[in-house]
TrEMBL record:
<feature type="domain" description="4Fe-4S Mo/W bis-MGD-type">
    <location>
        <begin position="5"/>
        <end position="61"/>
    </location>
</feature>
<protein>
    <submittedName>
        <fullName>Anaerobic selenocysteine-containing dehydrogenase</fullName>
    </submittedName>
</protein>
<keyword id="KW-0004">4Fe-4S</keyword>
<dbReference type="Pfam" id="PF04879">
    <property type="entry name" value="Molybdop_Fe4S4"/>
</dbReference>
<keyword id="KW-0560">Oxidoreductase</keyword>
<dbReference type="GO" id="GO:0016020">
    <property type="term" value="C:membrane"/>
</dbReference>
<dbReference type="InterPro" id="IPR050123">
    <property type="entry name" value="Prok_molybdopt-oxidoreductase"/>
</dbReference>
<dbReference type="InterPro" id="IPR006963">
    <property type="entry name" value="Mopterin_OxRdtase_4Fe-4S_dom"/>
</dbReference>
<dbReference type="Pfam" id="PF00384">
    <property type="entry name" value="Molybdopterin"/>
</dbReference>
<keyword id="KW-0479">Metal-binding</keyword>
<dbReference type="InterPro" id="IPR009010">
    <property type="entry name" value="Asp_de-COase-like_dom_sf"/>
</dbReference>
<keyword id="KW-0411">Iron-sulfur</keyword>
<dbReference type="GO" id="GO:0043546">
    <property type="term" value="F:molybdopterin cofactor binding"/>
</dbReference>
<dbReference type="InterPro" id="IPR006656">
    <property type="entry name" value="Mopterin_OxRdtase"/>
</dbReference>
<dbReference type="Pfam" id="PF01568">
    <property type="entry name" value="Molydop_binding"/>
</dbReference>
<dbReference type="InterPro" id="IPR006657">
    <property type="entry name" value="MoPterin_dinucl-bd_dom"/>
</dbReference>
<dbReference type="GO" id="GO:0046872">
    <property type="term" value="F:metal ion binding"/>
</dbReference>
Length: 734
């Protein structure tokens, strides 16, 4: 009998844009992928990665059953029972002998793209009871969490640019033409930028590289890596100096304005220009344009976070939005309201603090319940009381993605025990004693817990699994649930326990019995049932029937192209969680950090510095095993400006040796004026030629690991975020 062909709709989980996909499924295979033209948010947009959605499922290197490492170092497939027994045998003695602090956890980026990550990691970490928690957040957006924590009282209150209504967008350190956007979920980000221009608006890009986004912009300004805080302070200075501040309806909700005015005195554009290489007149001009635009948004992304003054830079982005009255107004930057979350009834809360504990070796503060991943290697390789002896990784590849990964790679080899929840035997998991592979994305349901709270328009979508699970495979929720049980030693149906806990909270509010509510819960899987409860009691929820037409999982199941929940609405003051219930514009840690920035004005300029870059067909480190995404010319090149190439006698196509404090590597030179003089660029996520890795396609296109060069000893002090841009390097011909 011929295979039946059908159409399925599904949210793409591969980046933050949350596009709707239309899949053609023939038998048990996804045979074609296109953008879902009826999707309420993405309207048919798709990128080359989304187009390969089905290929992850049939990748021959993708693990379907667990692997256990044998004494000779080889990984061998075993049954699930054997694998979980090996986890128990590995973890238990360490927990008993050294306590939970000896077990660290590293959570990687795809956790924010899976339902299991959104729902089962918190209970797992709680069960582990360790404070040695690390994640990809501290090689990414932690500075934004911290600045928003201080400003708005919650690290999750992150305003996003209202792309569809703004008249003027100033974008720093973001390249959505390649990345498809980040901390601003906007399917077809490029199309939304072009629409700004089409309606008579403008967008300006600040970046040390002339990216595709910069090419499309009305104006591109080169900036010295790591110096955006100076540029932005120069703009703040100008707003006060030229009396251009206009807080509008925010006036009663802002405290600390005078302090910012005082701090800005120290950063006249004429003084900061020499540090950031943006002319003083242009800095003043940008401030004037921002103030004059009917609506405007300042948006900074990873290039403003993964730098020494990351938190200060992220803060200044929103200071500018506040000073020009653009925070929380249509066309400015606004707070989304996701369907699984609730609105607050009034402003005010506990506020945001850091440093509830500190890392053992370097003493860096805890932030948002975790420690900087830049200290992970030293926590493992430094002996003494509290040393990390075992590691759990879930959806992470820190050997390619975190600073001084050479040191981390060596540290992982010295662990007493390591377990990884991951579908690949890759650069990191090759160190694992046990690898537990989750189902591929075609076989799991999807709801974006993280990104619907960052979307430039409120909407909700749920996708059921497209293909049935193969025999003898496990869903990620089940894997994480088993790990929880191994750690706690407690029996029972953990899924039902979690659901019961969620329902008891709701039952109190509704004055009903949890058991009665349980009967009304919809959903085929454990994650789906938890989602149903969150949706029904969320901002648009049906409250189990109390609100007619309210949202529920059933409503989303009935709407395969998503449910539009409207343009973003103002949320100040309700969203504010600061103790004062106001926007606290300048808290003491930020003022103190500003003093440090002031001192940095007089630092000597470094010589050559390294920055990263992203390519449309990459996804951090883990999709280079998809043939369609790696074909063509080698993309892992060291971009060098022609002036630097001439000075250093580097020829296009030749090899160069790049050396930093942390390490050295050799890469192929690409001479191009896309990078500014004094700056070289190498993408991250490559270096697939390590022994023991099972990624046949990636290994044939290995590239080099740029994080061999990044330095784990330099972090943004307020957030602990790694510095991955602006690394001092020396380059010479090989
Ligand atoms: N130099 C430099 N370094 C960087 C960056 C940079 O710009 N420059 N960017 C940083 C950023 S923003 C990030 S987010 C990090 C990413 O850092 P990581 O999260 O550590 O690395 P990824 O490359 O995203 O690797 C994801 C891992 O998850 C696995 N995986 C994929 N899907 C699933 C799944 O459904 N379940 C499970 N359990 N596992 C899955 C993959 O096989 C892979 O091992 O890298 C950072 N590193
Ligand atoms: N195709 C693709 N898409 C992705 C990813 C991917 O790996 N590939 N990764 C996903 C992830 S995890 C994330 S976090 C997002 C990131 O999304 P984006 O933040 O848009 O990431 P990038 O494309 O790296 O853009 C960062 C830009 O900052 C510039 N830059 C570097 N240093 C500085 C600086 O000091 N100042 C300024 N102003 N600019 C600087 C770089 O030249 C680069 O153009 O992308 C996501 N989407
Ligand atoms: S832009 Fe992101 S979400 Fe959209 S298709 Fe591409 S990878 Fe998927
Ligand atoms: Mo990221």
């Amino acid at each position: 009998m011929a295979d039946v062909t059908r159409t399925a709709y599904r949210t793409c989980p591969l980046c933050e844009a949350a596009c709707g996909l239309e899949l053609t499924v023939t038998g048990e295979e996804v045979t074609a992928v296109r953008g879902d033209r009826e999707h309420v948010f993405s309207h048919g947009f798709i990128c080359p990665k989304g187009a390969t959605f089905g290929r992850l499922a049939d990748d021959p290197d993708r693990l379907r059953r667990p692997l256990v490492r044998r004494p000779d170092g080889r990984h061998e497939e075993v049954s699930w029972d054997e694998a979980f027994a090996a986890v128990e045998a590995g973890l238990r003695p360490i927990l008993e002998r050294h306590g939970s602090q000896a077990v660290a956890a590293y959570l990687g980026n795809p956790n924010v793209h899976t339902m299991a990550g959104g729902l089962y990691l918190t209970p797992l970490l709680k069960a582990l009871g360790t404070r040695a928690i690390f994640s990809a957040s501290t090689v990414d957006q932690m500075p934004k969490h911290v600045s928003c924590g201080y400003l708005f009282g919650s690290p999750l209150a992150i305003p996003v640019p209202d792309l569809d209504r703004t008249d003027f967008l100033l974008m720093l350190g973001a390249n959505p033409w390649e990345s498809n956007g980040s901390l601003a979920t906007a399917a077809d980000f490029p199309g939304r930028l072009k629409a700004i221009q089409a309606r008579g608006g403008r967008f300006v890009v600040v970046d040390p590289r002339r990216t595709r986004t910069a090419d499309a912009a009305d104006e591109h300004l080169f900036i010295r890596p790591g110096t955006d805080a100076f540029l932005l302070f120069g703009m703040v200075h100008t707003l006060f100096d030229e009396e251009l501040t206009a807080l509008g309806r925010l006036i009663p909700y802002v405290s600390g304005l005078d302090l910012v005015r005082e701090l800005a005195v120290g950063f006249p554009p004429e003084r900061v220009a020499a540090v950031c290489d943006v002319p003083a007149e242009r800095i003043r001009g940008l401030a004037r344009e921002l103030a004059a635009a009917p609506t405007a948004a300042v948006y900074g992304r990873i290039g403003t976070c993964t730098v020494e003054f990351g938190t200060l830079t992220s803060w200044l982005v929103d200071v500018l939005n506040v000073l020009t009255g653009n925070l929380d107004r249509p066309g400015g930057v606004m707070f989304p309201l996701a369907a699984h979350l609730r609105q607050h009834t009034e402003p005010g809360g506990k506020g945001f603090t850091v440093g509830r504990w500190h890392s053992r070796v370097r003493g860096l503060p805890e932030v948002k319940g975790e420690l900087p991943v830049a200290v992970l290697a030293e926590e493992i390789d430094t002996p003494g009381e509290g040393q990390v002896r075992a590691l759990l990784t879930v959806a992470g590849n820190p050997v390619l993605s975190t600073p001084n990964s050479g040191r981390l790679d060596r540290a992982l080899a010295g662990l007493e025990f390591m377990v990884s929840v991951d579908p690949y035997l890759n650069e990191t998991t090759r160190h694992a004693d046990v690898i537990l592979p989750p189902l591929d994305p075609t076989r799991k349901g999807h709801y974006d817990f993280s990104f619907l709270a960052l979307a430039v328009r409120n909407f909700a979508a749920y996708s059921p699994p497209v293909l049935a699970a193969e025999p003898d495979t496990l869903d990620e929720c089940d894997i994480l649930a088993r790990l929880i049980q191994i750690v706690t030693g407690r029996p029972g149906d953990l899924h039902e326990q979690l659901l019961g806990g969620a329902l008891r909270k709701v039952a109190d509010v509704l004055g009903q019995e949890a058991d009665d509510l349980r009967k009304k819960v919809v959903g085929d899987g454990p994650a789906e049932r938890l989602l149903d409860v969150a949706l029904r009691t969320g901002a648009y929820g049906d409250w189990f029937g109390a609100v007619p037409d309210g949202l529920s999982l059933q409503r989303l199941l009935d709407a395969p192209h998503g449910v539009d929940l409207g343009a973003l609405k103002p949320r100040i003051p309700e969203v504010l969680r600061t103790p004062s219930g106001t926007i606290e514009l300048c808290t003491p840690p930020l003022a103190a950090e500003t003093a440090r920035l002031r001192e940095a004005l007089d630092r000597p300029r470094p010589g050559l510095v390294l920055i990263g870059r992203r390519h449309l067909r990459s996804n951090n480190s883990w999709m280079h095993n998809v043939p369609a995404l790696v074909k063509g010319r080698d993309r892992c090149t060291l971009q060098v400006h022609p002036d630097d190439a001439a000075r250093l006698t580097l020829a296009d196509g030749a090899s160069a040796e790049v050396t930093s404090r942390a390490g050295s590597l050799s890469a192929r030179v690409e001479v191009t004026d896309q990078v500014m003089p004094g700056v070289v660029s190498l993408p991250h996520g490559w270096g697939h030629d390590l022994p023991g890795v099972r990624l046949a396609v990636a290994a044939a296109h290995p590239g080099v690991n740029s994080n061999v060069l990044t330095d784990e000893l330099v972090v943004d002090p307020l957030s602990g975020n790694a510095v991955l841009n602006g690394i001092p390097v020396e380059v010479k011909p090989v």
